[in-house]
Amino acid sequence: MPRPPLAREKVLDAFEAILIDEGERAATLDATAKAAGVSKGGLLYHFHSKDDLEAGLVERLDHLTTLDLERMNAAEEGPVAYYVRTSVMEDDALDRALIATTRLAQGGSTRAADMLRETRRRWADTIRPHVRDTASLDLVMLVSDGLYFNNSLDVHGPERLVPRSDELADLIALVLRATA
């Protein structure tokens, strides 16, 4: 797959940042063009409407999820440990795409909500063969959700709300014992 043009990615980055920082209502075409440092015509060259911007962001999330699943399947620690460990938000591209897509879903975008459900389904499908039953799968998914949510409460504070290093390793070991 050829790399998208740099200007297109800058526009998507700007749209994503506005969604995260200010919400769906603030993410207008004009605001996105200004934040991206392109003319409105430059934005419209790549995205003909806000709906096209949303589709681009959803496509970005799909692509980043695919890359994450590849890393998950290749992880030496195994998919379950990888999934729990990477549920601690680190402000990477996948986190930003998830948050921005969530903002769209909260604003009523069916496409965004469908992609969030599909992303979660794909993660669950990858983890399922590595746990003993449905309750174990639910445990992994809910621990991951809890880590992700809890960390989002205070990502810049002096004390982290989510376990780090040894504490996270201990939590992963506990999840692995409970689901094997």
TrEMBL record:
Keyword Cytoplasm carried by entry: no
Residue stretches making up the HTH tetR-type domain: 5-65
Keyword Metal-binding: no
Chain residues forming the annotated DNA-binding region: 28-47
InterPro entries given in the database record: Homeodomain-like_sf (IPR009057), HTH-type_TetR-like_transc_reg (IPR050109), HTH_TetR (IPR001647), TetR_CgmR_C (IPR041479)
Keywords recorded for this protein, A-Z: DNA-binding, Transcription, Transcription regulation
Gene3D superfamilies assigned to the protein according to its UniProt record, in alphabetical order: Tetracycline Repressor, domain 2
Organism domain of life: Bacteria
Pfam families, per database record: TetR_C_28, TetR_N
PROSITE patterns xref list: HTH_TETR_2 (PS50977)
Official protein name in the record: TetR/AcrR family transcriptional regulator
